[in-house]
Structure prediction request, 377 residues.
Amino acid sequence: MPHFLKIILGFGKKMSSRDENFMASYTHLSDPMKESELKEDGFEENLHRDTATSHICYNVRHFERHGRELDDPWSCRQSAIHQGYSFGTRQSRWIVVQPPVVFLSNLSKRRFNNTSHPLDLHIQYLNTATAEWREYLNHIAEKLKLLDEVVAIFKPYGEFGLDFSSKQQIHNLRRKLFYAQSILANTLDILKTIGSHEKTVARMIGLPPSVRDRFQREIQNLARELRNYMRTTRELLDFSDAIRLMYDDILRFYGQELAHNNGARLTQIAQADSTDTKTIVSLIDKTYQDSHMVRIVTVITLFYLPANLVMSFFSTTLVWFDNDDERGQTGSKVSVLRVHREMWIAVLTTVLLATGTILISSWWERRARVTDLERVC
Prediction:
């Protein structure tokens, strides 16, 4: 059956998540004796029952525990099945790709007889493929319950401990629920395909009403169970949406609260800066006044120091006034300013002391500069 190849292409090693939503079901009736009649509707009534065959194939996605120590213990598996049924021999050929683990164990215990429906194995296959849906949805519901308990009790916004990763957890759970909803809808479509195909097969081989009724009841029971899972999935999506809105409100209000507190702190800082500015202005004014006084003192010093120097110089024993014996033109005695002959010793001492002071100051300044460079490096 060429349609089965479309399904098989979805298996194999993958380097990334792609083609994850493909689920399809196909049916086909063939008769090598009357290939030209197969294109018309209602052709099964004209098929040669000794050579005609029916085909049905589909792929199912289901959830199983992977057994690894991860936060999410569930993995989504894919399985495919193909049945070719011969109306002449009333025998089937089955191809099952990656079947559920429970299906293999139950298959070895199954006993077939002439009263069995030719499509009975599909019921067993789908029952095992959907057996873990209840536990899987309960697992997601428990995760959502834990997220809801975080915001269920009233307390200050800052004590909830929410951040962007909290919303990411909700997003991941909602993504799984949307994916589960898609799988459930496709599985229900598969059940419709099986039910339609069963009617054709039953007419072709004349199945007893009791066998058909039992098979249809199994299909309906499984469909009702899947529809219940669909409702549960929708309820969990609604519940997760309510939690998401609550998280949004808390994060928004907490952001507004932080903005308000930051504004109040900035106001306090601005007020403190204003006080500091006033203090600085006052200090600048006092400094200006002090500098004015310093200028006055400097002017006074400029006049006082030369006078003091002259007075100090003349008050030493290095110079003195002596009365000369010679008289001037007016007949009065003449006073002569005399300088001590060892005057050069005082001048030389002063020059040496000034030079030494300059050298010591330069050495001290260079030493301080080297120390600062060593600290920086």
